[in-house]
Give the backbone structure.
Amino acid sequence: MRDGFAVSEFPVPALDFTPAVEAETRPLWEKLKSRVTPIEWRTQAPLILAINALKREKNAVILAHNYMTPEIFHGVGDYVGDSLGLAREAARSDAAIIVQAGVHFMAETSKILAPDKTVLIPDLRAGCSLASSITAADVRLIKQRYPGVPVVTYVNTSAEVKAETDICCTSANAVQVVEAAAAEWGVDRVILIPDEYLAKNVARQTEIKIIAWQGRCEVHERFTGADMAELREAYPNAEILAHPECPTDVIEASDFTGSTAAMSDYVMRRKPKQVVLITECSMADNVAVDAPETEFVRPCNLCPHMKRITLENIYQTLLTGQFEVTVDPAIAARARAAVQRMVDLPPPLKPARYDLVKARHHVEVELI
Ligand code: SF4
């Protein structure tokens, strides 16, 4: 047990929905009542107050990913956003403790960028199909097979994998990073791992040849071109936004493609009358709370890993200090260099243009 944390048994003791709790949480209830039932709120409201009190007591912040459920995202998240945005907040924060309301690779990235802070994750089993698709040993073999070819790694990977690579990327800057790496190494091809679909979608936007790994996000790979055709027919006026981890025929059929942060920004700025977000289910729930004028069509897929994080286990984590995420300092230093190399690139002149996917249909990607 960590210093400063009480010994506590799971499950979380019942916290009462008293008139005082009801009154204090009423503004939040007004915001969330279209997403949460009154019965659920009786359990959630006291937990939200207890978590927020524990954060103050322990000098902790909660970094909540866009795929967290609305009561976490809007109720206890101090910083919300996509994985890279959250990692940057981890580095900037003055808090002593970071609770990662997200999956394990995100907590590792926070630890890499904020090595002096205690990073906790409420459920150690919160993994990711992309991150677990590739190991550091795999990357070492890839480097042996393609000597002199730079390795660009998506942030959805373990610290060990990041440590083996030259530079990290996100879905927002992957094209820029691929081109910068090719220029710096003086080559015309780049290894982009581990997401096969992100690699294929990036390949459509650049002259650089892409060598890709066959990892996939189990949430986004399930969307199909046939789903898109059905949506177009059923909702002809809806604007369809898709995540770049989706298959290329899904991207081709969408109106806009971008990271979760870019999708959220699109809805908040352009205020479409009707929108479809081709991504994880909680994303639309969270954006809808702040965009009441937009109607959301919800053909979504749940991420089972993200859904392991609950108000109950966040409360337990703050109470007991379980589960701390650590990264070997030598690995963290090498992984940090790969992340920092990306951060040090100048901002892209233009945002990622996944619409170019539609214009170039015959780009081949070499799959490892
Ligand atoms: S949504 Fe996909 S990429 Fe994100 S954590 Fe879940 S499996 Fe991993």
Notes: Residues 103, 128-130, 156, 217-219, 280, 303, 305-306 surround iron/sulfur cluster (CB under 6 Å).
